[in-house]
Specification:
The chain has 349 residues and is of the alpha+beta class. It has eleven helices and twelve strands. It has helices at residues 7-20, 25-40, 51-59, 88-106, 127-130, 185-193, 228-231, 233-250, 278-293, 309-321, 329-340, and strands at 4-5, 70-74, 78-82, 108-116, 135-141, 163-167, 174-178, 203-204, 210-211, 222-223, 263-270, 323-324.
Amino acid sequence: MSIIFDVSGLTEFATRLFFAAGLEADKADAVGRYLVEADLMGHSTHGLALAPWYLQGIRDSVMTTRGSYELISDRGAVQCWDGRRLPGAWLTSEALETAVDRAREFGTATVAIGNSHHIGALAAYLSIATDQSMLASVASSSPSGAQVAPFGGLDGVFTPNPVAWGIPTDDQPILVDISASITTVNMASRLKRENRVYDHSWLMDRHGQPGNDPGLLDNGATLLPTGGIDHGQKGYGMALSVEALTQGLAGYGRANKPKGTNAAVTISVYDPAAFGGVDKFIEQTSWLRDACLANRPKDSSHPVRLPGQAALQRKAIAVRDGVELYPGISEGLQAEAKYYGIPFISAKA
């Protein structure tokens, strides 16, 4: 039987849980809000499934619970922060809001953050900019992980290194959220727990042979780069670019050999008003949206859709009817609630 939770109640519970664990109120609010947002959009490996891991990070003093980032540099349209291992959700949302304000002044703005904790689902943050008719990108990498090999190699160097783009239109935004690997570390972990395998050979074992068993990752296997065995130079190029854009610009990354959960994030925001104009920008992006949606489908039962379209539809349904968490997540949350002595949220009537 499905258990449905009210969205506002679930968000309030998640916020209280992280506050009870020691996060300052604004940080608990950001973590709770954006983990739930990921679940609403259907990114269930990057939503509240992460809560027990984050909470363990707080207990182990891996995640910093209080204070602010250190401002490394500020040149108006460009800032660099040392995130001090603060919650990634708080740092990312703060950086996007800062970049929106700066882009309104300078036309474009970029914030590079080193030494952040994990940031979750990139697409969850994009509305901060798109709701204000601004174009935004978020790129992230984790210098403490190495699950993706360079194309032609066997040993992990990179993480999946995702990049997201929020593109405003005259209706819903286009939300692109892609990565340099075919699949993710969190999905591999879920499949291992459930004794399942991938539908396709999205891994490469330590000898260079493709495979679909995520358990191989415990024995030197790597996630295949986007493009796979034969065209993986595409994902390889993207991984290199993201590492330079995040760790390189932040000035902190793999060369520093960080221990524990660590992320680098770079956010850029563009105000179309400073370029060809907001109306002209929206005209172009809306035309492109319509052209894609009107394109002849290969399968008539599956019309062409836009990146983020299904996620926004899932979110709208969840806000209206409630959200159903992936199996096992609510049990993990109940255990954490018991540990911190707070009541677990009741299911929606």
